[in-house]
Amino acid sequence: MRNTRSRPGAELFAADPEDRPLAAVVANPTKIDPGTHESIAALCVELGWAEPLWLETTIEDPGTGQAEKAVEQGVDVVMACGGDGTVRSVAQALAGTGVAMGLLPAGTGNLLARTLGTPLEMDAATRVALTGDDRTIDIGRVRVDGADEERAFLVMAGTGFDAEVMGNTPEALKARVGPLAYVVSGLRAIRGRRTRVTIRLDDGPELRRRTRTVLVGNSGTLLGGLVLMPEAEVDDGLFDIVNLAPKGVAGWVAVAARVISRRRRGHPRVEHWTAERVVITADDPQASQIDGDPIGDVTEMAVRVDPGALVVRVPEGSPAAEILPES
């Protein structure tokens, strides 16, 4: 169910300071350029908002605690300024609160921003975060190896080749060449061996498969505009799941051709399913990732969809959503 709400903008120029809406920025200081703080603050004032709260992430807390603090302060929107990891950490705190998340892309992938049509330029993205519409989207909840804690994700979670590439891509290389860094790491990992996994979808039977990677997607968008799961929607209450099991370099070439063509069928080693819940159990621990961040070697990944849990600010008048009146 798509759900959006128009937000206040330039019509508040003359509002008294105490009546102006308040934003918070949760910023990863390692991802932003000098002057970003000042330019965002200036745009807030220009558009009739109060000067924003500025909360920087740390190694110990990559965004969740800062977003919780912002909610406690009664902000109208929390802007996640960083890469996909910062976005995910902020979303972890905002899910279920009704407080909107704005996306200020400053990472390498910025996959949720690309999916929702958020501008990748900082000033334009800030304007969307302050004056755009609200859209409710699903999030994923992941439990690893039976742990008590569930982790949130917004785009994809997976095991195998995909996670190996993410884990073996140096930050310095990403800083120098951007998304091309993942291609370099992918070429190094392409000759890896397939492994055996068991996949269970909802309450269905267990499926035994050989695989190089299993991905559970809330969105199907990859770097470079490639779409791995062409029917995935961020607000349909379902995951799209894909199993890739190519054998050798020739197999990967065929799989890549299938991905570029955006067909769900056409190669025997590419399988697609949809489900609300997925459990992936590997015979041997596999490299795993959520939203592109490595989480170590995992034997079991249990994933469930949390429908409509997060409000995200999107470009005003987005054709993907219905505009609802202010409540």
UniProtKB/TrEMBL annotation:
Mind telling me which InterPro entries this protein's record contains? Answer: ATP-NAD_kinase_N (IPR017438), Diacylglycerol/lipid_kinase (IPR005218), Diacylglycerol_kinase_cat_dom (IPR001206), Lipid_Phosphate_FormReg (IPR050187), NAD/diacylglycerol_kinase_sf (IPR016064), YegS/DAGK_C (IPR045540)
Entries under Pfam families matching the protein:
DAGK_cat, YegS_C
SMART domains per UniProt:
DAGKc
What is its cofactor?
Mg(2+)
Domain spans labelled DAGKc? 18-146
**Cited SUPFAM superfamilies:** NAD kinase/diacylglycerol kinase-like
Presence of keyword Nucleotide-binding = yes
| Keyword Transcription (UniProt) | no
Keywords of the record, alphabetical order, are: ATP-binding, Kinase, Lipid biosynthesis, Lipid metabolism, Nucleotide-binding, Phospholipid biosynthesis, Phospholipid metabolism, Transferase
Q: Which GO terms describe its molecular function?
A: ATP binding; kinase activity
What is one Gene Ontology biological process annotated in the Swiss-Prot or TrEMBL record? phospholipid biosynthetic process
Q: Which family does it belong to?
A: Belongs to the diacylglycerol/lipid kinase family.
Q: What is this protein called?
A: Diacylglycerol kinase family lipid kinase
* Native source organism of the sequence: Pseudonocardia broussonetiae
The opening ranks of the lineage are: Bacteria, Bacillati, Actinomycetota, Actinomycetes, Pseudonocardiales
